[in-house]
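Here is the promised in-class demo. Please do not try to memorize the tokens; focus on the logic of going from shape to residues.
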């Protein structure tokens, strides 16, 4: 981000937000016991919004902000776009390939392979949004996002589900699920539907676009306090609009509904505004170090967590995995099973912090 001298500086609030989001993602992905998890640390079964449902859209929002901050510099310098396109495509393919690798763990059974997932969606959203950013103004981006949300809403709520003959918004029985059943290769996460399927990817683009718009705001020549205020106010109104849209098109992460996009992007904007005010404006950096360390190699640590989990969740002693041993030990000394499961998840986050810290101290930043 540009400072008063016209040079670009790191946005520490964004680094911390990225890192804490990855830490939260690891925490909810790897509880001590799948049987004992606080309700808000699970994804909503269908309609609704939990803490866990916020994590993926917040990260995609951050991807959008990062695109605006990174590629604005290149556009201002007049860098040719062709090499940028190559880098964008190559990076997207790398992230997608790593996602495929994780889906193959631990047995590498290609006959039961899933072609979607968190990293896959990050890769696709990054590809779409980065190319869009290089070729459009912020107004065109805003209208593109608005158009996608409206068209998606109309498609899901007005087009009858083929084979059923009427509009359905139930798990496995809706237009998005039907499209996945017809055209999505490989295994689907929920048998006959996938939360990261084809149609639901389109509104996820808009989550990235809202991040790009926030990034554009951060680059405007206005005071830091004004930037924080704009983020907070626009975030509030976006969430409020999403709440009212929810009355006609329920907030649903599995379908990545239009109301879900507005509510979560609004939350992400308010969160960034708050962190920007506290960290970059007020200089209150105490407690932000873990987020900055995780954020320096965010996707790398996310991948490493999946690999480390193979040991903790598959290796058995006396017929039980290490995570179950840990939870049982905590329960034995008097902890509530759900709290014990959460404490184990936090311990696992701390274990992943060790390699993240080593990479950060050695100034090794792995770009995926």
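The designed amino acids, position by position:
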């Amino acid at each position: 981000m540009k400072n008063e001298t016209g040079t670009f500086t790191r946005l520490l609030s964004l680094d911390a937000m990225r890192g804490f989001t990855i830490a939260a993602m690891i925490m909810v992905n790897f509880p001590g016991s799948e049987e004992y998890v606080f309700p808000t640390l699970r994804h909503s079964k269908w309609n609704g919004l939990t803490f866990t449902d916020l994590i993926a859209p917040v990260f995609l929002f951050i991807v959008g902000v990062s695109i605006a901050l990174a590629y604005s510099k290149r556009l201002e310098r007049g860098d040719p776009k062709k090499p940028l396109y190559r880098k964008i495509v190559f990076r997207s393919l790398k992230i997608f390939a790593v996602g495929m690798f994780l889906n193959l763990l631990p047995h590498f059974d290609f006959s039961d392979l899933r072609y979607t997932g968190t990293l896959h969606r990050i890769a696709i959203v990054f590809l779409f949004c980065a190319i869009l950013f290089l070729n459009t103004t912020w107004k065109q981006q805003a209208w593109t996002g608005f158009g996608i949300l409206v068209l998606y809403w109309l498609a899901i709520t007005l087009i009858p589900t083929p084979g059923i003959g009427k509009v359905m918004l139930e798990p496995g029985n809706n237009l998005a699920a039907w499209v996945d059943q017809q055209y999505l290769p490989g295994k689907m996460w929920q048998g006959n539907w996938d939360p990261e399927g084809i149609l639901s990817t389109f509104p996820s683009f808009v989550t990235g676009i809202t991040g790009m718009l926030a990034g554009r705001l951060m680059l405007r020549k206005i005071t830091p306090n004004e930037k924080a205020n704009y983020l907070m106010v626009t975030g509030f109104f976006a969430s409020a609009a999403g709440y009212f849209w929810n009355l006609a098109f329920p907030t649903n992460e599995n379908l990545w509904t239009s109301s879900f996009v507005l509510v979560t992007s609004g939350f992400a904007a308010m969160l960034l505004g708050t962190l920007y005010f506290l960290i970059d404006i007020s200089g209150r950096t105490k407690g932000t170090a873990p987020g900055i360390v995780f954020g320096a190699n965010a996707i790398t640590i996310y991948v490493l967590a999946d690999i480390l989990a193979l040991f903790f969740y598959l290796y058995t002693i006396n017929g039980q995995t290490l995570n179950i041993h840990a939870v049982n030990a905590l329960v034995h000394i008097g902890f509530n099973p759900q709290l014990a499961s959460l404490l184990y998840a936090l311990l696992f986050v701390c274990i992943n912090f060790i390699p993240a810290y080593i990479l950060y101290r050695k100034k090794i930043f792995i770009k995926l």
